[in-house]
Amino acid sequence: MAMGQCAVTSATVRGVEVIPVTVEVVVSAGLPGMAVVGMPDAAIQEARERVRAAIRAAGFTMPSEKIVVNLAPSGLRKAGSGFDLPMALGILAATQQIDPAWAKGALYVGELSLDGRVRAVPGALACAICARSLGLDFVCAPDSDPVPLDDVRIFAMGSLGQALGEGGAAAVLERHRAGGGAVPGAEPDYREVAGHDVAKRAFQIAAAGNHGLLMMGPPGSGKTMLASRMPSILPPLAPDEMLEAAVVHSVAGEPIDGLIGGARPFRSPHHSASLAGLVGGGSPIRPGEISLAHHGVLFLDELAEFKASVLQGIRQPLETGSVTLTRADGNVVFPAQFMLVAATNPCPCGYYGDDEHPCTCTVPQIRTYQNRIGGPLMDRIDLHLDVRRIPPAQVLASGSGTPSAALREEVLRGRAFASWRTAREAEAGCPPESGRSAVEGCRLSDDARAFLLSVADLHSMSGRAIVRTLSVARTIADMAESAVVEEGHVAEAVGYRIRDGIGGC
Fold first, then answer.
1. Residue 505 has pLDDT above 60, yes or no
2. Residue 127 in 3-state DSSP?
3. Which CATH architecture fits 190-403?
4. Per-residue confidence at 303, pLDDT binned at 50, 70, 90?
5. CA 214 to CA 216: how far, in whole Å?
6. In the chain, domain spans
7. pLDDT of 436 higher than 60
8. Does residue 437 register a pLDDT over 90?
């Protein structure tokens, strides 16, 4: 069999970043065998057997000479089974069993089955973005994630046997259909939630200003029901937000059809989640729940039941909007701009402050239970809400509450006014995202300033608490389409910050 060499372009995923990899194949005289070098992981090493079987099943001849496959750059650790397809094409092109055009002009990613079929691998969307940046076509499996990109040609390769055609991928393969996103189903609606008018108002404010929200109340008071309907009052994903969120889900192997349809992610991990499961980690590194909630909602039910180390791990991402994982071979950064919605019982038995069920916990038990959340994390949550059980008559009236569509209108109006106000402040040269600009952007009236100062002194509020209270007041004013934050706006914001009854201040 003819001997030769060939290079095929592929890619590897590191975090949410995709790095191009050149799969260099050399077939030469020597002891029969196939060696893969270039810091491959176990899945890539096992590709030798998959590639052999797939080449034979597709009707080609596996070379009996020495085969060396180098994954360049060699100093970069590679992971995953997506190198199967480029390795097989490189071997076939090097031995002149297929047209050398297959090795040019395209980036290939795909796993091979033993019968020669091409299987999808995680990260297809991220790899397509990499191919676009390189000016190449992208070839993947037919069942790969839909790719909502118009400026890159994407082809579906169902089996290795399709490489028998001449002219390369663009001449033989069919275009990969992007798909239109998931068909929207019956989304949970706030119409089904009777009562809880104060809670619905708090969720509106949180949705309008991307504020974190903590609900505390007894079992059966409706905390989970309220939180699960949060996406129904959020605006759909913007195109850039959709792409960012879809890339994270793609590299994690999660479906992205709903995101492409504009639905914001809603993640609800169990309280037994590990730190790596929540913030990311593992080998290879995988995004955690806070990154999968990027541009969406992260709902932590039974917040006090989470391990303390796990909860403290989300403090920095709440501030920065990203999480940096440090490993021996470098840092990996995942996006994590999420809206935190949390719920917890006020005590171990759950009935502290309930009007009907007496609490059986001692005061030290209640304090210990609530302190498991931690003051620093509580300080980073903008809205603190007491949720009480509603009367049975209101439970039977479920279905007659305010619908999500009506609540969303006010949310959209508040966001639109905030965008207009921010644009006007930018024209005036006001710097964004600083404590000083937060105060200046509020344009507090004299009465509002005096009221806030008195409350801050009375409750010994930290600087962060004051700024976050101002941020909530600014959102409330935006929803009222007021350029100035009045005393009433600050009073409502303080009411959500300083809790009463259940849990104290």
1. no
2. helix
3. 3-Layer(aba) Sandwich (3.40)
4. very high
5. 7
6. 4-175, 190-403, 430-505
7. no
8. no
- Residue by residue, DSSP assigns 135-169 as T-EEEE-TTSPP---SSS-EEE--BGGGGGSSS-H
Q: In the chain, what is the straight-line distance between the N-terminal and C-terminal CA atoms, in Å?
A: 80
Q: Taking the CB of residue 320, how many other CB atoms lie within 10 A of it?
A: 12
**Poorest-confidence range of 45-49, 101-105, 184-188?**
184-188
CA 140 to chain centre: 23
DSSP 183: P
Give the pLDDT confidence of 50-80 residue by residue, as tens digits: 999 999 999 999 998 999 999 999 989 999 9
- Name the average pLDDT for the chain: 89
In SS3 terms, 397-434 reads as CCCCCCCHHHHHHHHHHHHHHHHHHHHHHHHCCCCCCC
- Helix extents (H) in 17-67: 42-45, 47-57
Tokens (6 digits) for 82: 């997506």
CA dihedral 54, 56, 58, 59 (to 10 degrees): 170
Residues 6+ apart with CB under 8 A from 449: none
Q: Is omega for the bond preceding 184 within 30 degrees of 0, making it cis? A: no
Residue in 92, 152, 102, 146 with CA at minimum distance from that of residue 120:
146
Query: Is the pLDDT confidence value at 475 over 90?
Result: yes
pLDDT of res. 501: 41
CATH for 430-505, options being 1.10.8.60, 3.40.50.880, 1.10.8.100, 3.90.226.10: 1.10.8.60
What pLDDT is recorded for position 356?
A: 83
- What are the C-alpha distances in Å from 55 to residues 23, 65, 162, 297, 375? 17, 15, 12, 46, 60
C-alpha closest to that of 373 among 311, 443, 313: 311
CB atoms near residue 52 (< 10 Å) = 18
Residue 395 CA from chain centroid, whole number: 34
pTM reported for the whole predicted model: 0.89
Tokens of 224: 């989970």
What average pLDDT does range 106-134 have in this prediction?
96
DSSP-H helix ranges across 58-150: 84-94, 124-134
What contacts 50, CB < 8 A, 6 or more positions away? 81, 84, 111, 112, 113, 114
Order of all β-strands in the sheet with 383-386: 266-267, 297-300, 339-344, 213-216, 383-386
For residues 157-170, give the mean pLDDT: 93
Task: Give 6's strand partners.
Answer: 25
User: In terms of CATH architecture, what is 4-175?
Assistant: 2-Layer Sandwich (3.30)
Segment (H or E) for 204: helix 197-209
Read off the amino acid at residue 131. A
Q: Above 60 in pLDDT, residue 473?
A: yes
- The overall longest dimension of the chain from CA atoms, in Å, is 89
